[in-house]
Amino acid sequence: MASADIGAAGFAALFDDLETDSARLSRYTIDGLLPKAAATVHSLAEVARIQSIATDHDLAVIPIGGRTMLGLGMPPRRYDLALDLAGMNQIVDYEPNDFTITAQAGMTLADLQRHLATNGQFLPLDHPRFERATLGGICAVGRGGLRRNAFGGPRDWLIGMRMIKADGTPITGGGRVVKNVSGYDLPKLFAGSLGTLGVIVELTFKLRPQPASDQIVALNAPTFEAALAAAQSAAKAAPFLNGCVALSSEAAANAGALGASILHDQPALLLRANGLESAASEVLAQGLQAARAAGLDGPERTTSAIVETWQAVADLELQTSRQHIRLRLGVPPAQLIRAQQILSRQLPDASSWIAAADSGLLFLEVAAIDADVIKSLRNELGPLQGRLTVETAQPELKQAVNIWGPSGPGARLMHNIKEQFDPQGILNPGRFIDGI
Amino acid sequence: MKTPTALVHELIDAIGEAAVVWHDEDLLVYEYDGTIDRGNPDVIALPANTEDVASLIKIANKYDAPVTPRGAGTGLSGGALAAKGGVIIGMNRMRRILNIDVENKTALVQPGVVNLDLGAEAERYELAYAPDPSSQRACTIGGNIAENAGGPHTLAWGTTTNHVLALELVTADGEVQWIGHDTRDEPGYDLVGCVVGSEGTVGIVTQALVRLVPRPSAVRTMLAIYDSVRQASNAVSAVVASGIVPAALEMIDKMTIAAVEPVLNTGFPLDAEAVLLVEVDGPQSQVDAEGARVEGILNRFEPREVRSATDPIEREQLWAGRKGAIGALGQIMPNYYLLDGVVPRTKLPDVLDAVYEIAERYRLPVANMFHAGDGNLHPCLLFDEREPGATERVLDAGGEIMRVCVDAGGAITGEHGVGLEKRDYLPWIFSEADMDAMKALRAAFGPTENFNPCKIFPKGHGCGEAGHQHAQHQIAKFGPKAFV
Predict the structure, then answer these.
(1) Fewest CB within 10 A of the end CB: N or C in chain B?
(2) ipTM confidence score
């Protein structure tokens, strides 16, 4: 039976505990599309069963965690079933002295961090809306955050994973040890695959001890450009900084509204360092000295609300104003200033700029943008090895611009992999790079 | 004089006579790597550039000849052995560092660059290449990528996979493509993450863009000598639990001390049971503070002595006993079998006890040297292959040690690779479905059946060799899927 033939009653006959009421399905809307049904799962076996049925009936399934990043990706080609994993939120295995933890995919990053904090440990990942974002979702998106330079991304901390293949077969990759070359690294394949290869149900991470001291300091700047130039100098002078972020006045104000009061609603440079107290202070002082030499002469502002301040800035990635379009640029750090100049010249009305100078990441937002402008920006940024993605936009614009940008020479291999793991194309069809 | 076959003729036409090795006596050196297995290649081809590699693979495919990539041949799992004969593609001529991008902290290198040479070049710019396998004086970046090599300093910095951004890859069908990006985690499947650690079974890397890390402004190395392995293990646990992430945390045991002391004059007392090496690095103030704290912890476990050095030459002396350990073992016995088990850190003391027990039962001397901070142990079984039955005994004991690691929740290899040597043990940690998923990934890279055949996965056709038969024996003894 093809998916088009299955009505609400047909779905109910296939699965127990299925949500088919359209009002309650609205929470799973993706690019204006509602699924025909939603299943909330609580076990690996339930996911396996659903995938097996979905394969038999050719139903398009979209695995969903905390619903913080549903706007990311191309509009789905089809969307029959929302597979809600947020209820799979348990710790599976945690031996603190091993410095590893295994948790179910629906656990939020915030819950995991709270759990780890009781043992003086943490997982060094920044992610927007971490109170809601789930481990499975964060790894499916697979991107590092504002401290990407210092800590890498989910792939760098993942050591093991359990997944359910599109056809319902449970598989495991990696293990519970911090170093492992036993077999191919399937966790890395699944991290960043945006749910197109299988459903991530369980993850094992290696962990870090919480640093004895974690410090941040903010310096205001006359303009975003000045803050960015200072950030680049600071990152160069103090390579052991673990965060080095420049914000425009709108971004500072928005972060201020979320709790980052030390930014004073002005363009700002925000530095973060950790380690033993004296070491963190030394690194921060190196960064500050470089920022001062670059012309920032305002007072240093600091706070003990480090996590809250940092998270407020990280959250901006998902705080785009209504109807606005958010863009993300990844570029080698030394090219960041030139890339920013290209963007601001072609997008004079862009606002809410955030740049992680040491990581080569830039976020900005615009009220409107033409597909031609995106194309021209990509042409100009290409030689700098910059990759521009459109993070949130109306479906029409997404279709017109290809939000991921050109797929590059690895596309042939990516299609081969998709074909091997999901030959029917039932998982997240059409949302990923190059139509995958 | 042997007559070259049509295959050899065609390889010579493609890359020149001087770059093709095919006489029996010249092939001898390519029969070995760092393991006790052997392979018999028919011909060796030494390409000068990416185009050569692509042509060679296409020619081999035309003749259905197996292809085996090879770096320096220092591998410890038989990964570079031509298990089914055919063509070995040796990457040693492609050994140029093409670019160091100081601003973006990256290096573009050819695969034949020696690990330590890249480190030395990076050092000129106050940068470092973090993965530092013990064979770094000889092993190449291409081989490091194939095996996802680690080393003592991966405790703080991660293994090779955490340091590779992009690769030029010639896949098993002879197609050339770049995978990855100049920046991390950009959109698309993590093809680089799939290729690193794939043990040369999906293609040959012809260029690599790797990350460099800032060189720490200060380093302090501490060495503590203990009267029992337990004491040393407890000190390791205490250091890890203290919240400090040392740059390295290494241990060697009495047998290793006995081997290195006469050769390297390390000044280790021959009756000591364990030597612990701990290194901290970073800004000066951090090194001062962490160093003092680590020294305090080491002293709590009643060491005979704690030595400390910050000067590069003195630090090198402290490291000499660890880095020279494998070479020195030849003093005790002509052959060794080096294992690479990895277990959750808290299981290390119990697993070590089991390793000593197994070695004693098999009447084999064992030297232990390991990355204690990572839970990665390298028991080294010493033997003389000329003694009848010795090799078989060693392989049996090795299988039993791997079983102990797996039963402790660990894995069969942490940084050396599965290769030829451990492939029959893979079902101890993965189900058929898991391995099918891995094979599906491999198939995405083209016709890979003949590409570095008989590696990683059990049950290859025509791959029969001594190690394989012994593994079958072990599996019969312990059951194929006790852990799965």
Answers:
(1) N
(2) 0.96
Contact A383/B at CB under 8 A? no
* Any B CB within 8 A of A74 CB: no
Sign of the C-alpha dihedral computed for residues B235, B236, B237 and B238 taken in this order = positive
CATH of domain B218-328: 3.30.70.3450
pTM > 0.90: yes or no: yes
What are the residue boundaries of the structural domains of chain B, listed by start?
6-90, 97-214, 218-328, 332-478
**Nearest chain B alpha carbon to A232:** B103
Q: What is the pLDDT of residue B477?
A: 56
* Opening angle at CA B482, ends B479 and B484, nearest 5: 130
Nearest of A270, A323, A315 to residue A66 by alpha carbon: A315
Spelled out in words, what is the top-level CATH class assigned to the domain A3-86?
alpha beta
* CATH 3.40.50.620 is the classification of domain B6-90: no
CA separation for the pair B83, B195 (Å, rounded): 21
pLDDT given for residue B382 in this prediction: 95
Cα A353 to chain centroid, rounded? 17
CB A85 within 8 A of CB A64: yes
**Mean pLDDT taken over chain B:** 92
What is the topology classification, in CATH, of domain A320-401? Alpha-Beta Plaits (3.30.70)
Same fold? A3-86, A213-317: no
pLDDT at B473 over 80: no
Mean pLDDT over B54-65 rounds to: 96
CATH code at A213-317: 3.30.70.2190
Domains of chain A, residue spans:
3-86, 91-209, 213-317, 320-401
- Helix B254-264 vs helix B312-323: angle between axes, to the nearest 10 degrees? 120
> A192 — contact with chain B (CB < 8 Å)?
yes
- Which residue in A181, A283, A331 is closest to B415 by CB distance? A181
pLDDT at residue number B459:
76
**Does the pLDDT value for residue A4 go beyond 70?**
no
- Indicate the pLDDT class of residue B186, thresholds 50, 70 and 90: confident
Instruction: Indicate whether A290 pLDDT > 80.
Output: yes
Partner-chain contact B437 A186, CB within 8 Å: yes
